[in-house]
Amino acid sequence: MRPGAGPGAPEAKPKSFGPSLKRLLRRLAPEKFYVGLIVTLVIASVVLNTLGPYILGKATNIVFDGLVGKQLTPYTGMSKDEVVETLRARGEGTLADMLGAMDVVPGVGVDFSAVGRVLMLVLALYIGAAVFSWLQGYLLNIVINTTVKRLRGEVEDKIHRLPLRYFDSSPRGDVLSRVTNDVDNVSQTLQQTMSQLLTSLFSVIGILIMMFWISPLLAVIALLTVPAAVVVTAQIAKRSKPHFVNQWKYTGMVNAQVEEAYTGHEVVTAFGRNREVGEEFDKRNQDLYDASFKAQFISGLIMPAIMFLGNINFVLVALVGGLRVATGHISLGEVQAFIQYSRQFSQPLTQIGAMANLLQSGVASAERIFEILDAQEQSPDPAVENARPVDRGRVEFEAVSFRYEPEKPVIERLSLVAEPGHVVAIVGPTGAGKTTLVNLLMRFYELDAGTITIDDVDITEMTRDHLRSRIGMVLQDTWLFKGTIRENIAYGDPDASEEDILAAARAAYVDRFVHALPDGYDTVIDEEGSGVSAGEKQLITIARAFLAKPSILILDEATSSVDTRTELLVQHATAALRRDRTSFVIAHRLSTIRDADLIVVMESGRIVEHGNHERLLAERGAYYRLYNSQFAAAASDA
């Protein structure tokens, strides 16, 4: 990890809610046909649902008119107009106005057949609305899962295009949290909000139309609470968003802490730092709790506030509506329908308010995903690759300079030539730039100045895949995936035959211990290499590198994890397998590189000495001091 990197590294400032939401929704564009069909089905479902109360009001009118008509039995034989005039003559003007607006026949009761027909029509409308709703839910599920699948694939592809510098400066747990937790949260947010938001939006439009159709006065009264609801929602959402951003930021930090403590559990236990690790976890866990509590509590105020405003609206509509019925300006069924619309009108607003916290959380996660997608990628491979062969393995560093950070030089104007088939050992104190030199050869990082060539071909004129296919690398930290020993070795060349795999295993002395395992080469090991020792894991990774048949071999402290006997076996194996290969060996134990063709001594990013073992000892310089310090330390330990 480069200096200054780690869990405390500053994060990019989160984007605003609006642009991030728009960007998230634009990711649905490839599914625009289905989106259009979903919108059509939502509109159809909303229209049918919206017509239901109005038509149901007709049934109420039929029942109410029938009941009133039955009460007018003394006036049987008279027309409605005659009854109204009679009532006015008696001074019962209010009752006369109400009867004038009704469709009654004096002495005739409820027409239940008409009520049945209306109810069957309403039932058909609701069944149709349910079918359309189910269809749009089914299609929406396809759209969202396809979109999230594509998003997850883009993040995975982006990870492979990011330079090593990005991972050096980002906590691994936080990156994993973005790729897993945040993507899942975006998926859940879209699943739970998109359909409801569409339905709520079109429901509001449809309900408004019906409300104004029934009574413009009552519609205006009902709309008085809308501005208040909008202001309340906006203000609460504004205050909750920073806490949602912090919630997912702290989630990533907690994941990073847990991942770090888990992978380093043995070290933590050995040094007795369990209490300190626990305290650090408790602190970050508390930060996550505080952010989550504030986010959920503040956003949770939206729904109660909107419900309160909706109840005020209901009281006003019921009061004014009753007065309008009494004066004959509106029918009872229309008031009933309007009250239903009024409640339905507040319901979408309430649902939007309830979804605000989900939406805030999902957009906060989307922002974290977009930060990965927007991260600067490694420089592109050449459009036209240099077709010259690079099989000899001559490597030349010419005036190479590199810095992790602008103000801290790591390598300055370094020049080095490794001839084909030679073993080049790179030694020096920690931080001298040994591993950095290898990383530059592999193009894990790009040069600040100078060139690196293989067989006189600039490595920047080669694709990274081609370059790395010519290089075999064995690191100090072994890496095995879950699978059989055979599969782990074959990772070096997926097309290798069984004979090639066994030959590589024998050359790396894997064959010697594999037969003692229960299932031999079919023995399954997990990601941590459980079931085999540290030295055996290293031998497997060496066999993997040898199977790749590279032109250039890199051993970065490859024998540091093996015992003395195994180290001797590895040295014999590498001596046989590095024939006709250029080999770079990074070693702290100088006894392992005595037979190197060229030993390069580095200090502070510069080559201070180079030559073979005998020559460098004779010069009594930096190599001589390093060599003697190791043997002096060994003698004192003995």
Keywords:
638 residues, alpha/beta, 6-stranded mixed beta sheet, 4-stranded antiparallel beta sheet, 22 helices, disordered N terminus, disordered C terminus
Describe this entry's structure for a reader.
Residues 1-14 and 633-638 have low confidence and may be disordered. The chain is elongated and about 135 Å long. It is 62% helix and 10% strand. It has helices spanning 17-26, 32-71, 80-89, 93-100, 112-161, 164-168, 172-214, 216-223, 225-263, 265-270, 274-299, 302-326, 332-373, 434-441, 464-469, 485-490, 498-507, 510-514, 534-547, 564-577, 613-619, 622-637, and strands at 395-405, 408-418, 423-427, 449-454, 457-458, 471-474, 483-484, 524-525, 552-556, 582-586, 598-603, 606-611. It has a six-stranded mixed sheet, sandwiched between helices. A four-stranded antiparallel sheet has the order 2-1-4-5, covered by helices on one side. Strand 11 and strand 12 form a beta hairpin. With 638 residues, the protein is an alpha/beta fold.
Poorly predicted residue ranges: 1-14, 633-638
Shape: elongated
Average residue pLDDT = 78
What percent of the residues sit in helical stretches (DSSP H or I)?
55-70%
Number of helical elements: 22
Adjacency order of strands in the biggest sheet:
6-9-10-3-11-12
Structural class comes to alpha/beta
Count the beta strands.
Answer: 12
Transmembrane segments: 33-56, 118-144, 197-214, 220-237, 301-323
Pfam families: ABC_membrane, ABC_tran
Organism: Nocardia aurea
Keywords: ATP-binding, Membrane, Nucleotide-binding, Transmembrane, Transmembrane helix
